[in-house]
Design brief:
The chain contains 8 helices and 6 strands. By secondary structure, the protein is an alpha+beta fold. It has one domain. It has a 4-stranded mixed β-sheet. The protein has a two-stranded antiparallel sheet with strand order 2-6. Helix 2 crosses helix 3 and helix 3 crosses helix 5.
């Protein structure tokens, strides 16, 4: 529940963004893959923001309301109304890159948030620094499968 002194326009409602295909094949928001490969695309503030929002969904899977002032302070930035502040830019990046989507403005501002992100799209992989492109290739092609593990244990 949000404090009574918080203006209604500083409250955002968070709901899960369900996508069975991505949830089955993607990476949990707290997986090291997110920090290694999504962070350079989303940026650090947006990465922390989506992790916080998704973490709230782990505690309240049906959704919850959050005070954006408190949320912003919790990830180390200030919140001011408008679009020209670090928090608003991070929120925009989350939607721009598909980690979240705004699904309603009225009666309440509502954001659907992924708790699992897909493998980084090729267009973003191509923009990673060369060492990270190599690391990404190794990550997705060298992960041990259950068959490999079973053979090595035989």
């Amino acid at each position: 529940m949000h404090p009574s002194h918080t203006p209604e326009d500083a409250i955002i409602h968070i709901v899960p963004w369900k996508d069975p295909l991505i949830e089955h094949n993607g990476y949990s928001i707290d997986d090291p893959y997110i920090e290694m490969f999504w962070l350079p695309v989303l940026g650090p503030t947006a990465t922390w923001l989506v992790r916080r929002l998704a973490g709230g969904l782990q505690r309240e899977p049906e959704g919850y309301a959050v005070d954006m002032v408190d949320l912003a302070r919790g990830i180390g930035v200030n919140y001011t109304p408008g679009r020209h502040n670090p928090f608003a830019r991070a929120l925009s990046r989350c939607t721009m890159f598909g980690a979240a989507q705004q699904i309603a403005i009225q009666p309440h501002r509502t954001l659907a948030v992924r708790t699992v992100l897909p493998q980084l799209p090729l267009r973003h992989i191509a923009r990673l620094p060369h060492p990270l492109r190599i690391a990404h290739h190794d990550w997705v092609h060298m992960e041990p499968s259950s068959e490999t593990s079973e053979l090595s244990n035989a």
